[in-house]
Design a protein that fits this description.
five-stranded mixed beta barrel, 7 strands, alpha+beta, single chain, about 40% helix
């Protein structure tokens, strides 16, 4: 059986396999489980869209679907994190708590292993840390590909004491049954080692 961390390394090196882009819907009814509270979710969405929208000219946004320009703006932010400080300086009335969450954004390749009744299980691409992750207004499986067992690019934020996805998912790679078994075993090891969390310490 392949070693889980070796599998992680080989998958993370494969950046050419690209899937469709998925994004949270802002008009979806509130789901009462596996998501954060609706008011908090919409506070974050409003602040996130306003900030990311400030990074692109209107001409660019008008030519793209929201999911596309949001991801493009997120990439721009990752290249220039100082853009958030500049935005704060120019928007004194912006939601400071939500901007703090954006400042802590972690974007990377994640293994979306499975769902429990309370959260979705993610591991980082090095298989060194596992997370119990919530959605914003929808379950994570509903904004990705309708199922778990994938590797994907997404954002992770601390929000309301929990780990929450930023709702923008791209570059989805399906995992075969053997690899999923390896990852499941690695997840058990991480749980036993105390390297699983549902929120920031």
């Amino acid at each position: 059986m392949a070693q889980p961390r070796s599998v992680c390394q080989s998958l993370s090196a494969n950046r050419q396999q690209r899937g469709a882009l998925y994004a949270v819907s802002l008009n979806t009814p509130f789901v009462s489980h596996m998501v954060i509270s609706s008011p908090l979710a919409h506070r974050f969405i409003d602040a996130y869209m306003a900030f990311l929208g400030s990074l692109l000219p209107s001409a660019v946004k008008n030519q793209k679907e929201p999911a596309e320009w949001l991801v493009q703006a997120r990439r721009r932010f990752l290249k220039d994190p100082s853009a958030l400080a500049a935005y704060r300086a120019q928007h004194a009335d912006a939601d400071a708590q939500m901007l703090d969450a954006i400042a802590a954004l972690k974007v990377g390749r994640w293994i979306y292993l499975k769902d429990t009744r309370a959260y979705s299980v993610w591991m980082d691409e090095t298989c060194e840390q596992a997370y119990g992750v919530l959605g914003l207004t929808q379950r994570i499986r509903d904004i990705s590909v309708g199922e778990s067992g994938v590797m994907m690019t997404a954002g992770l934020i601390p929000l309301g004491g929990r780990w929450v996805t930023d709702g923008l998912i791209e570059n989805v790679l399906w995992l075969g049954p053997n690899i999923r078994r390896d990852f499941t075993e690695r997840y058990r090891e991480l749980r036993q080692a105390g390297r699983f969390s549902t929120g920031p310490v």
